[in-house]
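Exercise 7. Predict the joint structure of the components listed below.
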Amino acid sequence: MSDPSIAIIDLPSVPPPLVSSTDVAVEMVDVNKWYGEFHVLRDINLTVMRGERIVICGPSGSGKSTLIRCINRLEEHQKGKIVVDGKELTNDLRKIDEVRREVGMVFQHFNLFPHLTILENCTLAPINVRRMPKREAEEIAMHYLNRVKIPEQANKYPGQLSGGQQQRVAIARSLCMNPRVMLFDEPTSALDPEMIKEVLDVMVGLALEGMTMVCVTHEMGFARQVANRVIFMDGGQIIEQNDPVSFFTNPQHERTKLFLSQILH
Amino acid sequence: MSVTTDTFVRDDLLPAKAPPRNTVGVVGWLRQNLFSTPLNGVMTIIILAFIVWTVTPFIRFTLIDAVWTGPDRSVCATATGACWAYVKAYLPQFIYGRYPIGERWRVDLVFVLLLIGLIPMLIPRVPYKALNAIFLIGVFPVVAYILLTGGHHQFVGSLIPSSLMAPSPLRFAVQYAVFSAVILGLLALYARLAGRPISRTTTPAAMILGYIAVILVLVSLDFGLVPVETANWGGLLVTLVVAITGMVAAFPLGILLALGRRSNMPVVSLASTIFIEVWRGVPLITVLFMASVMLPLFLPEGVTFDKLLRALIGVTLFQAAYMAETIRGGLQAIPRGQYEGAMALGLGYWQMMRKIILPQALRIVIPGIVGSFISLFKDTTLVIIIGLYDFLGQIQASANDAKWASPVTGLTGYIFAAMVFWAFCFAMSRYAAFTERRLDRGRR
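Solution:
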């Protein structure tokens, strides 16, 4: 682990984020979650400031996906407090809907809607959730499809696109809702190596624009270059968090060292 | 360079030659598909012999030896083939039952309106689908109801005691107004508690209540049509009324039950499950029998309920339970990611179901839905046990008529019934296959 500069994928260097010192995007206080008897999240405390770019890594089963899925309440936490954009997530369905409107999410398996065209995938939520006129929604959708460099695919169906293209559509679909926070749940794990870069490039672009991002990923190159904070989880707990340089060059906890030694050769 | 002896350059390209005679054309096809091996050859011959052996007598009976014209049983008494003359003579009865002859144009008009509404609806290229659907679902049933029954219903209302208000259409109107006000009030209260905009909850409800009010007014108006009791309906008319009402009413009910059964709310889920399991666990004959014989025992004296209506309700609820299970199968086939993708975008439950889940789930279960529509269409014949004469019942009844009684009359009638039922069911099946192919295009 002597040389952690393992950026196999050549990503543009990204200046450090402009992190707000007062504006809290996501706050998790003593969050605990159980699946039946199984304690998946243990006393999670995490504050994400506006503009921060956080990468969460850890072995599989460590609870990292569960953690970010709690942020938009795809998973329910049983103890503790989660506040997103000033709204606390409780059983209040209205609050949950409000949070989901402001938080975009990109999934490992894209979760595009196969019966709708790319354009319809992108305009569905703005039209139905934001009550935006169709024409305006389509303009915005085309803007973001341009951003992810696939405007020419707008009238195709997801099944006709490659994995990398589908994931870029999924990102564009989230952006159409103009979210304040973006969550990425292993966005490149289901992609062929060739396609990973095109998705990471889009994510880097988002970072450059100052998007608040929480990203579960195994792309350590991305973490080094984009994140301002790397969080290592194991056994449902946050084991270590640090700025990327210190995290990769000088990990403190034995578990972190072991993990890094296994993924960085 | 000695290696050059191995090189070869073709000077002139070979022209295409005709294939061997025994691989193309009729002979080739026969060889490849019917006689490719000795065993295949033997099986081909045996099956051909079987087809000839069974189909020949059938064709002899229905076509060659058949009697096509004649005034009464005398022409069929000694016939060895089908007595089509009898079918011809009875055709109006098979279609209309005992519907008064002078009023049968009303039934014809309903059939024509149905075709006018249905045919453009079934052809994907024809525009104005929304208007078409409004006609078919919103307008046609009311018009058909008025035409078939004659309309001019006397609503008097029965909830407000007679001491307060004499039975009259006015009393009914007052009742309906009170009922509507209560419903709207409850909805407004609910919307307020849930913190939703009140008008968005109450406006659709008010529109539905208003629509029902319009229907009630329309069916109570006197259009000068002679009332025709449902007891006089029969034949294909009853078959189609029961089948179409059953399909159209059971479909949305089935969707709601399927969603209900998968709901996170224990009460909703339990209630849906109980409803489905009860109706699925009871034979349709029992349902019809209960509806026709038992139900009147529970109703207060003087309250009568049309027999056909009771059968319709029974068939609809029965069908809804089956429909629900079919649709639930489709819902279960939708990956969790689709739900999560929709929820993460902020779509509410109903938006998610309407836009994302149901369109995909229903497409998967088209074969199942059509299957249960087809079995419903055939099951309508069971209404005969409660004394309604559907198409088959009408044929059965007429076969015993002394005017046409002959050894072949009954058989002819059943063959005719089978052909008509087959034509309807086959058409449904083919249309479903067409829809499946159409929806499959461009996806995946």
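Discussion. The longest helix of chain A spans residues 193-208.
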